[in-house]
């Protein structure tokens, strides 16, 4: 299998606070993890690419100081939304790619619903 | 960067008929094209993928075709069943180099009519 988990599944926070979301690959090692954002009934938008042991690569328009990404091990990446605002409310989904140069499939986590009040 | 267009946005077919969803991409360097199925409230599930060195790939009732020259690829579902109802996303990327996040199309809501 290739199971990816996310925690928490839902979180409500107050404006100005920070929230950390965890993404774990449960039964495989992932040198690369990806963070996406999905608005209701919309597509997934790539936010950043997280490589184990190095700095994340952010997509154009994504503030790296607001969305802090840490990929400290081969099975865990975290996304911290700092100083959250209501417009940060969204569905955040991570994906993980198995280690190996010829493996391209990305397996998605169940997502985290963030609501900022 | 890459841009992926997907059509139609909604597709309704009779159970047992075939469904075709089409996507085009802009970056000729892209070499990996997966398709995901997402049911309401659930995570996207990889259903089939194709690499640029292959023109067609089939897995039971699902097939994907790729035309590199025209930069388009399509998902074909035959003998559709009620459980095929979901939102389908195509995606494209250039693999390798550690920055191969997926660019997704806007999705197609497939409705299977009983």
Say how many strands of chain B there are.
Answer: 11
Q: Could you give a short account of the major beta sheet of chain A?
A: 7 strands, mixed
Mean pLDDT of chain B: 94
String of helices and strands of chain A: EEEEEEEEEEE
Uncertain spans of chain A, ≥5 residues at pLDDT below 50?
none
Give the biggest sheet of chain B. Answer: 6 strands, mixed
Give the number of DSSP strands of chain A.
11
Q: How many separate helices of chain A?
A: 0
Q: Quote the distance from N terminus to C terminus of chain A.
A: 37 Å
Secondary structure category of chain A: mainly beta
- Morphology call of chain A: globular
Supply the number of helical segments of chain B.
0
Helix amount of chain A: under 10%
What does it look like?
By secondary structure, chain A is an all-beta fold. Helix content of chain A is 0%, strand content 52%. Chain A contains no helices and 11 strands. In chain A, strands 2, 4, 5, 6, 9, 10 and 11 form a 7-stranded mixed beta sheet that branches. Chain A has a 4-stranded antiparallel beta sheet with strand order 1-3-8-7, with no helix packed on it. The mean pLDDT of chain A is 92. Chain B starts with a strand and ends with a strand. In chain B, strands 2, 4, 5, 9, 10 and 11 form a 6-stranded mixed beta sheet that branches. Chain B has no helices and 11 strands. The chains are: A mainly beta (117), B mainly beta (114). Chains A and B meet through β4, β5, β9 and β10 of A and β4, β5 and β10 of B.
